[in-house]
Amino acid sequence: MKLRTLLPLLILTASPALSQDAPIIHDGEFEYLRAQFGAEWDTQDAEVDARLAEIRDANGGQPPNFLYILIDDVSFGQMGDRKMNYVMGIETPNINHLATEGLSLMRMYTEPSCTPTRTAMLTGRHPVRAGVEEVKVALVGEGLPASEVTLPEILKQAGYNTAHVGKWHQGDIEESYPHNQGFDWAAFPLHQQVQLSLMTPEAMRANNMLGYVPEGQNNQFLLDERFKPYGLVTGVEAEAGGMAREIDMAAGEVWTQAKYEDMNLRYQQQVLQQLQRVAAEDAPFFLQYWPLYPLNFVYPDQAISRNGGFHADKLQLLDGWIGDLLDALEESGKADNTIVVLMADNGLMYHYEGTSGLNQLIYRGGKTQHLEGGVRTDAFIRWPNVIEANSAAGDIFHVSDIYTTMARIAGATDYIPRDRVIDGIDQTALLLNGEGHGRRDYVYVYEGPVLRSVVKQEFKMHLPAPGQPGAAAPTYNVYRDPREQHPLVGYSLWAGASFQDMVKRHQKMIAKYPHSEIGTGLPYEGIENLRPESELARETFMSWQ
Amino acid sequence: MKLRTLLPLLILTASPALSQDAPIIHDGEFEYLRAQFGAEWDTQDAEVDARLAEIRDANGGQPPNFLYILIDDVSFGQMGDRKMNYVMGIETPNINHLATEGLSLMRMYTEPSCTPTRTAMLTGRHPVRAGVEEVKVALVGEGLPASEVTLPEILKQAGYNTAHVGKWHQGDIEESYPHNQGFDWAAFPLHQQVQLSLMTPEAMRANNMLGYVPEGQNNQFLLDERFKPYGLVTGVEAEAGGMAREIDMAAGEVWTQAKYEDMNLRYQQQVLQQLQRVAAEDAPFFLQYWPLYPLNFVYPDQAISRNGGFHADKLQLLDGWIGDLLDALEESGKADNTIVVLMADNGLMYHYEGTSGLNQLIYRGGKTQHLEGGVRTDAFIRWPNVIEANSAAGDIFHVSDIYTTMARIAGATDYIPRDRVIDGIDQTALLLNGEGHGRRDYVYVYEGPVLRSVVKQEFKMHLPAPGQPGAAAPTYNVYRDPREQHPLVGYSLWAGASFQDMVKRHQKMIAKYPHSEIGTGLPYEGIENLRPESELARETFMSWQ
């Protein structure tokens, strides 16, 4: 809590580090690269600036719009590729087509779970720096702190209209809500799909959640009725600075699969409406669509895919919706000056492998894990007449780079804070010049607050157990062994020391710029129509605090 | 041996089963399908015949040529796909391009190892029916029996010129040699890459074969010097009916990695020469190229791929060679009337996963295994102006279908024998009409002589242990669970009985048409210039027989 009270003071202080003439503070590893490539990058950057100015001039002085689509829990290869479609027995023709219209980032690293990936994209930082871990399903009284400077906040400063539709998962406290973090308008659920789709009578009957709903079992010894989350707020809508309003739920109403499906449909309709709204304005826009599907834990009454699994089938459905959204963008007349990014936030929920229809397709592991299967996702970027169609890049990219790169393209780099470490690298040169122009060859991979592995070039070291030397760390070549199953002892013997140096550089920067803490507060503040059961849930939650 | 002596008699007998008016004898499962779809297929077949006649008329009355390229030990996804290229850090642009020019068969099943897959393609039958298992690296005195009627034999009857270049692996007895099995000309090694690439001083030093060559260790207790294969015949060349001649090896010469690389280069040059020869003739041709690469067990002095593993790097090299071959086909003027098939014979040598640079990319398992990783391979078929470019089919195909389908297209169906079970299904309708026109939804998967699994539609049952009921068999949905790791008990409960019925139908047909036996004889007969060490090896081999 000490840091949290200190932070606003820090921001108000006119320290040299806050001057926008100061360089962005990057991690030690990036400086290590800049020492080797700085001159070359400076030359490239002058060309990048010229090209961005040219693009802006060709669009009436407007920087590009952004449509950022983030799909939940889909592993690398599970969308956007016909061959893998055949392997899985699903069809994603719209995403496949989008992939052919732009750049496929073949080494996009995310964080291993929903909350951290989204925080990294929003803040340009590893979420651990703001104390953010995966936000739990129930009440937590925590969330993305106001002290973080989000991408929509800096884009707004550069004149952008902003809107968020869909999953948010950044906490249940007022400062964490999207309309308090840079979005002009937002529709989002307070929690996530575990509450919304897994904790339903239908999912219980589908045998995935036996015991959650009271009908699931008859327990005469039961005391605590709040061990099973209760009375949680569902979907809300709000405008920047205003109160959020829960919609489509009456007091005492039971949340069901049908209501979840309605919510998904509603977000799809709302993203179309928001697109229409922002496209009609003169200002550039940043529109964010974070669908809840494919997550869903009930088999469809009528499968639309050959696979039929409850995630796979909804992924195919979602593909059609994305097609509709891209069509609407086309019809809006703004497609040519809009950068579309579509990616996943992390790997599949491997816990439901088999029944969900998704599986560890290429990389091992999934959501929550530092393995490639947890943190490698598909990412497609379309920028008409700028990014070459059907191109691909094997350069390493981290989701936090979206922050720094979009800021650069929007002309908003000056608004990136200079008082903290920014992990996101400006990758604009890669987008403009293609493969081989990436500016990172490393990624630090966390699971929550724990650094679990370090990626450098084609090598990946899983951190050794505490106290063990670097030579004891299993090290993999991700080209030869994408499933990280054959550590070669020789690798660690030569690379162990270099990897440990990387860890040290990273730790020294943390010592210099210590982590701040997650935002905390009373859950559900700023919601104007809390249901009685939500009030009760909050009271129970606060009972011991 | 009884069956083997009976077989020639059977063939000479003018039994009704031998009349070419008689239908081809297929397995029970196919008849089960024909009972459901026969009328529809008859209608389709009339259209297929009309279309084939039309194609022939458009080509001066000539049926199409065939160029059949079979790559060794490459799993599904490891070639022909840019995305997977990025995963693996290799480039196969020529095969990727070929894939876009024709039909990708997304469910091609092979046998799980080199010899059986090649036998199945050559004979249209599961190799177990002819007693064929994997041919060992050393002397065996066994091979593909003369009684089998091979695809080149029936194509020759229909007027084709034929040639074989590269790996053969069908035995070391005279009747098994390609020039005695239907090929006008053949260049091939008597054995396979374990001898040619793994049993070299260089591979030993690369730590893959420690102990094979005498320098590898000093063992004062050693008696048997033939436990390590010795004096094996290497590459030979021959014309139909003639003697084979070993080339490029002098008496006493040591086989080395350099000689292996020369052999690979030579086969590449020879397939180009053979293409020139057969393309210059009026008759249609069947040209078969079975490269030895990517197998090779020594790291390249200079890697050409990002991967650098000894198989992966050679796969990239081979891709360039295939590009050259396809260019030569184009230059020959025969490309338009030539069907090019490129596929792999089975999954990777997972034994070398990690160092080889190949890995169990999508499906689990590899060479020698009944798992999808062992028997699912890429297969691309290009037929200009007939097969739709960049098309794909999820229909099940088995490598034995190549036999029956090519025979149909060549107008050689009448030469398919009617006295034995032919497993290969005529899939011409699928090639002409595209996805959804396949004629099998099942495959029996053997490991050597043992039936290990049965595939039906999206389901795959691993056979239960002997004596166990069908409900005890693990059953998988290959769309939802391509790695066959999550057997669902409910599947076996409902599908177990149906799968057991399939096994029974298969067994009943075996009882009706019993397996014949593998050809046997004196190794190396029909080679005109055996080196003294090869003579010695043969003498030692025969010592106890």
Automatic annotation (TrEMBL), chains A, B:
Top EC class, one word: hydrolase
Domain of life of the native organism: Bacteria
Molecular function GO terms recorded: arylsulfatase activity; metal ion binding
Organism: Ruegeria denitrificans
Similarity-based family: Belongs to the sulfatase family.
Every Sulfatase N-terminal domain range: 64-411
Keyword Cytoplasm: no
PROSITE patterns: SULFATASE_1, SULFATASE_2
Gene3D superfamilies xrefs: 3.30.1120.10, Alkaline Phosphatase, subunit A
Signal sequence, start to end: 1-19
Name listed for the protein in its UniProt record: Arylsulfatase
Documented EC number(s): 3.1.6.1
Keyword annotations of the record: Calcium, Hydrolase, Metal-binding, Signal
SUPFAM superfamilies for the chain: Alkaline phosphatase-like
